[in-house]
TrEMBL record:
Organism this protein belongs to: Lactobacillus kalixensis DSM 16043
Protein family per UniProt: Belongs to the class IV-like SAM-binding methyltransferase superfamily. RNA methyltransferase TrmH family.
A GO CC annotation given for this chain: cytoplasm
Name of this chain's protein: TrmH family RNA methyltransferase
Record GO terms (molecular function): RNA binding; RNA methyltransferase activity
Keywords, sorted A to Z: Methyltransferase, Transferase
Protein's GO biological process: methylation; RNA processing
A Pfam short name: SpoU_methylase
Keyword Methyltransferase: yes
Domain of life: Bacteria
Length: 255
């Protein structure tokens, strides 16, 4: 086990930069923190680049997860470094560095998928992914313009679901083309004169469900590629539903 005691250490400085999208893209690495996320990563047999933690946190990781504290990629850090690395107010003083693993090619020939069209809020993205996992969906596809999947806030909101289902960053036009080529219907959620109420749709054994940007909704390009448009009726006076809440209602309708 290594030990680092200064926030000015080169490795610590570089790892702290992983809270920024550009550095994640440059290095192909991302950071998660907290015992629950790290436990889920280990359950999914993810190999970590580094595991950093306080003496107490690493002792717990050894006792509960069987972490080999003698390994060179396990690093003992102090509270100052923990605060420097953390993206939360109350850190649990344990961090894992993982490789970003996006498949170069993916065949959408089966399953139920949520397609996120330029979503901007990491909390919404993480919550939708967690909901899709809970409902037994196959995976979630994020358009390249959506918020970064490896954003720390998005990672926390997923609560480990990122290790349970397929998460793909891919052009939605290509994704919808692939789904339809395999006989999978694609529904776009949007307020439109031609849209039908959610209740009018039966469950499908396989489908793609498009959720649009929080402010602008589903893009015209994606909507025109979809097989059907649907909406959730508003019975009260609220103008609209939060994107993650709306997605949850629709996901479970088709689960």
């Amino acid at each position: 086990m290594q030990q680092i005691s200064s926030v000015n250490n080169k490795l610590v400085k570089n790892l702290a930069k992983l809270n920024k999208k550009k550095y994640r893209e440059d290095t192909g690495l991302y950071i998660i923190e907290g015992f629950h996320l790290i436990e889920e990563a280990l359950k999914a047999h993810k190999k970590f680049k580094y595991l950093l933690g306080s003496d107490e946190a690493l002792s717990k990781a050894e006792a509960e997860y069987g972490i080999d504290l003698s390994a060179k990629n396990v690093i003992l850090i102090n509270t100052s470094i923990s605060r420097h690395l953390s993206a939360t107010t109350n850190s649990q003083d344990i961090f894992m560095i993982l490789k970003i693993a996006q498949p170069k090619e993916f065949n959408f020939n089966y399953g139920k998928w949520v397609l996120l069209d330029n979503l901007a809020d990491p909390g919404n993205v993480g919550t939708i992914i967690r909901t899709a996992d809970a409902a037994g969906f196959t995976g979630v596809v994020l358009s390249p313009e959506s918020v970064d999947l490896y954003n720390p806030k998005a990672q926390r909101a997923m609560q480990g679901s990122q290790f349970h289902l397929d998460l793909i960053i891919k052009n939605l036009g290509d994704t919808i083309t692939d789904l339809k080529a395999n006989g999978i219907l694609v529904y776009a959620s949007m307020l439109d004169k031609t849209a039908k109420q959610l209740q009018d749709f039966e469950k499908e054994p396989q489908l793609g469900l498009v959720i649009g940007n929080e402010a602008h909704g589903v893009s015209d390009f994606v909507a025109n590629l979809s097989d059907e448009k649907l909406y959730i009726p508003i019975k009260g006076q609220a103008e609209s539903l939060n994107a993650a809440v709306a997605a949850g209602i629709m996901i479970y309708h088709f689960a």
